[in-house]
TrEMBL record:
GO cellular component: membrane
InterPro entries linked: SLC26A/SulP_dom, SLC26A/SulP_fam
Principal cellular location given in the protein's record: membrane
Keyword tRNA-binding: no
TM segment ranges: 15-35, 42-62, 82-100, 112-136, 156-183, 195-214, 234-253, 323-353, 373-400
Keyword list, A-Z: Membrane, Transmembrane, Transmembrane helix
BP terms from Gene Ontology: transmembrane transport
Topological category with respect to the lipid bilayer: Multi-pass membrane protein
Subcellular location: Membrane
Domain SLC26A/SulP transporter per the UniProt entry, residue ranges: 11-378
Annotated protein name in UniProt: SulP family inorganic anion transporter
Length: 488
């Protein structure tokens, strides 16, 4: 056995898997960049950094990082508000924040974020992506707000019917989605080619062969697209709005990456994710990506699951996928100019649809309606307001829901008809349930002695303690025997 094979026993498996991941990542990198309002090459730059930088670092050995559809909406808003030069500074600052959180060992705490909030975030993003890409497929300019995007979709589609050029563009997008949906039903030997690549390739071939009047990707060259942020870009970070965007990038990218890591760990039997190291790996990738003026990155479950299913065994597969992206961007950039924009819009509409957890909502509504409410409110808030504030609202609602459930308290009244009435409180007595506690106690007979047993309480906060003491004083002042209390 040769020394190289001994040193890299899984090179064959990892090489094959890297090619599959490259073919999956290529159309997604370009599509996410175009949907984010930045040059297509910057999506490839982020994919390359995700492979060559994040891919080399420890954390999760099999998950793959790159530009993600989940951040498209936030990136588009950031570019619109602060400009493309400042985007790199924002991404770099978010990466440094991720590095700091990883160094402080905060990675494991992201697992404590409510899954309903994360799924609600993805659902809201999915809705905005779908609505926005309908306009892109029609060759129209999308409205700024999420609500306007969704409300205007019927009008945009109706207008497409009256314009042959617009109808052609929409048809290319719809055809791309149809290929993506039907691709999963084809024989396994055909599905060796990733569906997204096949759909975009077919759309490109049809557009070129029939000279269809649809817009294609604009290419300016890899080096021309890269812009290192200058002093002005970093100076813009002092504004509260820019700092809020930095925090949003860091928190949302971290949460999506670490949730993806947990999902990928369930797909294989290899080494488990080290969350703090993975958070630092993502931070390093975003720092480099920001320094090149490119898009923010996260771990992407689509590419990661493709990596595992293709037989990857080590991190070499994700590093090699970055090498193939680099070679493509360096040697074949003109090939991007053939890709029709409606095809990329179709890929993203399909990706946005998969972000909406329809089955989870139905299941949660049957079993845990509170969690379903958190999911739906988060999604709606993202559409109506924006992603950062929508996620904050979801987190706040999740905390309130948990506090309400944790404050469960039970009052048992035992009255034998003679002698004192025994009131037994058990559970957690917090201010959230104070009205219920007082209503029950004040309903007890005022002319009978009371024994208040608090020994079953696990927690008694200050508000409840004060209210109980006040009730005891009032009841004892009615002329009956003083209330006897058994302390918790």
């Amino acid at each position: 056995m040769s020394p190289d094979v001994t040193k890299y026993p899984y090179l064959k498996q990892d090489l094959a898997a890297s090619l599959v991941v490259f073919l999956v990542a290529l159309p997604l990198c370009v599509g996410v960049a175009v949907a984010s309002g930045v040059p297509a090459e910057l999506g490839l730059v982020t994919g390359i950094v995700g492979g060559l930088v994040t891919g080399l670092l420890p954390g999760s050995s099999l998950q793959v990082s790159g530009p993600a559809a989940g951040l498209t909406v936030l990136v588009f808003e950031a570019v619109r508000e602060f400009g493309l030069p400042t985007l790199g500074a924002i991404v770099l600052a978010a990466g440094v924040l991720q590095l700091a959180m990883g160094a402080l060992r905060l990675g494991r705490y992201f697992r404590a974020i409510s899954v309903s909030v994360v799924e609600g975030m993805l659902a809201g993003i999915g809705l905005v992506i779908i609505a926005g890409q309908v306009y892109a497929a029609a060759g129209l300019r999308a409205p700024a707000s999420g609500v306007d995007k969704i409300v205007g979709v019927p009008g945009a589609l109706a207008g497409a019917v009256t314009s042959p050029t617009t109808l052609t563009s929409v048809s290319v997008g719809v055809g791309t989605i149809a290929v993506l949906v039907l691709w999963r039903r084809l024989p396994e030997r055909v599905r060796v080619v990733p569906g997204a690549l096949a759909a975009v390739a077919l759309a490109t071939l049809v557009t070129w062969a029939f000279h269809l009047p649809v817009a294609t990707v604009h290419v300016q060259g890899l080096l021309d697209a890269v812009h290192v942020p200058g002093a002005d870009a970093f100076g813009a970070l002092v504004s509260p709005a820019a700092l809020g965007t930095v925090v949003a990038f860091a928190l949302i990218a971290s949460a999506e990456s670490l949730f993806s890591a947990a999902a990928v760990d369930r797909l294989h039997d290899g080494e488990r994710t080290r969350y703090d190291k993975e958070l630092m790996a993502q931070g390093a990738g975003n720092t480099v990506s920001g320094a090149l003026g490119a898009l923010p990155m996260t771990a992407v479950i689509v590419r990661s699951s493709a990596n595992v299913q293709a037989g990857a065994r080590t991190k070499a597969s994700r590093v090699l996928h970055g090498v193939w992206l680099l070679l493509f961007a360096a040697l074949l950039p003109a090939a991007l100019e053939l890709i029709p924009l409606p095809a990329l819009a179709g890929v993203l509409v399909h990706a946005g649809w998969k972000l909406i957890p329809f089955r989870q909502v139905v299941s949660l509504w049957r079993d845990q309606r509170g969690e379903a409410l958190v999911l739906v409110v988060t999604a709606v808030a993202i559409v109506v307001v924006n992603m950062f504030e929508g996620v904050l609202l979801g987190l706040a609602l999740s905390v309130v829901k948990t506090a309400w459930e944790a404050s469960h308290i039970k009052l048992e009244v035992m009255d034998k008809g003679a002698g004192p009435i025994r009131a037994y409180l058990s559970g957690n007595a917090t201010f959230l349930r104070l009205p219920k506690i007082l209503d029950s106690l004040e309903a007890l007979p005022k002319d009978r002695p009371i024994e208040l047993d608090l020994s079953g309480l696990h927690h008694l906060d200050h508000a409840c303690r004060t209210a109980l003491e006040t009730w005891v004083e009032r009841h004892s002042a009615t002329g009956v025997d003083p209330v006897r209390i058994t302390a918790p």
